[in-house]
Amino acid sequence: MLASVATFALEGVEGREVTVEVDVRTGLPAFTVVGLPDAAVREARERVRAALLNSGFEFPLKRLTANLAPADVRKAGPSFDLALAVAVLAASGQLAASDLNRYAVCGELSLGGALRPVRGALAVAAGAEAAGFERLIVPIENAAEAALAAGIEVLGVENLVRLVEALRGNWNPAAARRMHAAPQATGGPDLSDVRGQEDARRALELAAAGAHNLLMIGVPGVGKTLMARCLPGILPPPAGDEVLEITRVQSVAGVGLTGQLPTRPFRAPHHTISAQGLVGGGATPRAGEITLAHRGVLFLDELGEFSRVALDALRQPLEDGRVSITRGQRTLVFPAAAMLVAACNPCPCGRAGQACQCGEAERVRYARRLNLPLLDRIDLVCAVAPTLPSLVGEQGRPVSESSDAVRERVVAARERQRARLADGSTATNAGMCVRQTRSLVRLTPSARNRLEAAERSGALSGRGHDRVLRVARTIADLDGRDRVGPSAIDEALGYRLQWRDGLAA
Residue 184 domain-assigned? Predict the structure, then answer.
């Protein structure tokens, strides 16, 4: 007898429908799984057998053949256990095959028949919704996450016995409730902890307001890392679509989810990370740090210590907002719309000026890692000078503005951008395409003259011209102005060209 049930495989951060077909025939007892399974899927034979027997069902002592179609898609992970068990029950006559038409199932089985959570529940639910299924059955721990897909009814069950009762109509589980929002994170550093550094604080606010890439250059100990870690506290909470994107990425990667809707991610990998770890890859392609930072912040401390290969690999993701990885005959696309925030010293020894002990060859080698193609993709470059000791912790000095106050201005600026870009594919100034930049950034005549003068001097590339316009538009949004004036252009140019003097090479 033949029976089939639908489940889903993960391709990148998307769910792809897989039909699990099980054929039960008279013959020597055997259980074969075909359809390009990996080791975890092949091991499902033993989990399914034990789970069925320990749940009080019969495991047929016949020849069982399970096919995972389409056969040219690699199947990985334990999430196919539940579909295999349900198909075996239907093929052996213990469950009516007609009961399976409206359902898709996904989950891992324990030997006792309990359902264990799997990765990518939201991607599976979105795939099931797109495929037209009415209901999706998942482990109860995954139900709240999968319920974020609004167009499908998600049922969370505890074990195989309950699942069979639901499929037979003997038990009607309540539809899963969606995950609830997490409170605003308060455990990180606050901008009020930063004394002085007005230029760097301004650059940080601009980066947050427009989702611009930022590089801070300064000697060790001036507060670059502290300010970067203050950034999550001034970013606006993710909007509805962004929440789904962040949740999907974190769920597929198996990181970050706590039963609540996620906040914007902040990833800070060590400088010894490989190019594959940074942008993704591997024999079985997995998301890299820039994908895990999607819709959040990727912080690279000591940027000059990262390998040249790893930094070069960042160029295209920073430009396109996605990573395409080709392995064999398939291409997987991972989202990578993250803000890059980096910090580095002005030279290898960290002592700029007369105290520098670096030789010319060392400085050249250091600067080559921060090559022009990478710097050309960074909108804001800020030189961070040492703070006077009298500004740190002295009684009577004015307290620096808090993260809450800065976040109010950032949220207001983001709302202006969202309204202006409502018909486009992005909601921030940094994400505008060339056409949007030229049409939506309206300059005053004097501002246009300032920009044309910078172009004639040879200081701007074509990419740099557009990035200056986007930063200037963010400055105007923070000030509540509809048109971009000359002061906004001057400030944007200052941050754009500052790297020439910030590095000692």
Answer: no
Domain extent for 134? 2-168
Euclidean distance between CA atoms 107 and 387, whole angstroms: 55
Q: Which of 274, 258, 265, 273 lies closest to 237, judged by CA?
A: 265
Amino acid identity for residue 175 in this structure: A
- Token pair 């959570």 is at which residue? 117
CA atoms within 13 A on the CB side of 175: 11
* 485 and 348 share one domain: yes
Same domain, 215 and 324: yes
Q: Give, for 214, the enclosing helix (H) or strand (E).
A: strand 214-217
User: Would you say residue 181 lies in a domain?
Assistant: no
pLDDT tens across 448-472, in order?
999 888 888 877 778 888 999 999 9
- 206 and 146 inside one domain: no
For the chain, the straight-line distance linking the first and the last C-alpha, in angstroms and rounded, comes to 74
Q: Do 420 and 473 sit in the same domain of this protein?
A: yes
Neighbours of 171 (CB within 10 A): 13
Co-location of 147 and 206 in the same domain: no
Q: Which helix (H) or strand (E) holds 501?
A: helix 499-502
Q: Which helix (H) or strand (E) holds 300?
A: strand 297-300
- Residue 175 in any domain: the answer is no
pTM: 0.89
The per-residue pLDDT for range 165-213, each reduced to its tens digit, is 988 888 888 777 777 665 555 567 888 888 778 889 999 999 999 999 9
* Tokens standing for residue 36: 């390009």
Nearest to 214 by CA among 341, 103, 395, 94: 341
Q: Tell me whether residue 344 is in a domain.
A: yes
What DSSP state is assigned to residue 101? T
Cis ω for the linkage preceding 486 (within 30 of 0) = no
Q: How far is residue 84's CA from residue 128's CA, in Å, rounded to a whole number?
A: 17
Residue 484 DSSP SS3 = strand
Instruction: At 83, list the tokens.
Output: 């579909």
Spell out the residues 6+ positions from residue 403 whose beta carbon is closer than 8 angstroms to its own.
Answer: 190, 191, 192, 230, 233, 234
**For the chain, how many structural domains are there in total?**
2
Question: Do 294 and 344 reside in the same domain of the chain?
Answer: yes
The angle subtended at Cα 316 by Cα 251 and Cα 294, nearest 5°, is: 25
Tokens 């100034």, residue?
A: 429
- Angle at Cα 284 formed by Cα 280 and Cα 286, nearest 5°? 30
Q: What is the DSSP letter of 481?
A: -
> Nearest 5°: phi and psi at 218?
-175, 165
Beta strands 108-109 and 115-116 are: antiparallel
- CATH code at position 281: 3.40.50.300
Query: Does residue 123 sit in the same domain as residue 206?
Result: no
CB contact burial 363-375 (16+ within 10 A = b; e otherwise):
beebbebbeeebb
Note whether 232 and 105 are same-domain residues.
Answer: no
